[in-house]
Design a protein that fits this description.
By secondary structure, this protein is mainly beta. It has one helix and nine strands, in the order αβββββββββ. The chain has one helix spanning about 5-20; strands at about 30-35, 35-40, 40-45, 50-55, 65, 70, 80-85, 90-95, 100-105. The strands form three sheets. A four-stranded mixed β-sheet has the order 2-1-4-7, with no helix packed on it. The protein has a three-stranded mixed β-sheet with strand order 3-9-8, with no helix packed on it. The chain has a two-stranded antiparallel sheet with strand order 5-6. A hairpin with a 3-residue loop joins strand 5 (about 65) and strand 6 (about 70). The radius of gyration is 20 Å and the shape is globular.
Length: about 110
């Protein structure tokens, strides 16, 4: 086993301090937009979770919850993420195709 000399140890400590840690949350979720449907149509998550919507359709869509969040127009493979900081029910829809609806339930 190789031991670190002082210079190598200093570099390792500096890297640990300067490089941010990335923590993936187990309760972060994804919703896919495919064939004019949000899948899954309803999610139950905990406060602090992030939901990411990905448009898999060949045409644009949006993700809108009135007064809460609004995505830009999402082209194919574009993503939109929102972190839910308050409990409650968040109904959402596509403003370009209002028949497309979904629900996020935050506990």
């Amino acid at each position: 086993m190789k031991t670190l000399n002082r210079r190598d140890f200093g570099v390792a400590v500096a890297a640990a301090i300067l490089l941010p840690a990335t923590n993936a949350r187990a309760d972060d979720m994804e919703v896919h937009i495919d064939n004019f449907v949000f899948q899954p149509a309803e999610l139950k998550i905990t406060v602090g979770s992030t939901v990411t919507w990905t448009n898999r359709d060949d045409i644009p869509h949006t993700v809108v919850s009135a007064g809460k969040f609004r995505s830009k127009t999402l082209d194919t493979d574009d993503k939109f993420s929102f972190t839910f900081t308050n409990a409650g029910d968040y109904k959402y829809f596509c403003s370009l195709h209002p028949h497309m609806t979904g629900m996020i339930k935050v506990e």
